[in-house]
Design brief:
alpha+beta; five-stranded mixed beta sheet
Length: 118
């Protein structure tokens, strides 16, 4: 929180599903990319919460345009790689395509970038 104050940011305290639903309901700005970023939090959610977030993002993505695109970047644990356990993936609407960008460690200090599935 102290770091956020130094750069004039506000940190919201809210349930993740409620927060993303509220944020994605707001109209997007024209000529700007709306970016949602989450890191190492997906495994804390139950199946219902995950499903709701996926639905919310999909609905927001369906409303995105080339003048108001939506990007969802995730750094989440997959458990498929011992030294780099987090998959980095990016979904951009339109068109709604997901790209696996690489893998990282939990702290985000080590990366292996890729151009396909990992």
């Amino acid at each position: 929180m102290n770091s956020a104050r130094h750069v004039n940011l506000t940190v919201d305290r809210a349930d993740a599903v409620d927060w993303i639903e509220h944020e994605m309901a707001a109209p997007p700005a024209t000529d700007r990319v709306r970016l949602v970023f989450n890191t190492v939090f997906w495994h804390y959610l139950d199946a219902r919460a995950k499903g709701r977030i996926i639905d919310i993002m999909g609905a927001a993505g369906s409303r995105a345009t080339t003048r108001s695109p939506l990007a969802w970047f995730r750094m989440e644990v997959t458990g498929q790689h011992e030294t780099l356990p987090c998959r980095l993936q990016l979904t951009i609407w339109p068109p709604g395509r997901t790209t696996v960008c690489g893998r990282a460690d939990f702290q985000g200090t080590q990366f292996k970038w890729s151009t396909g599935a990992t």
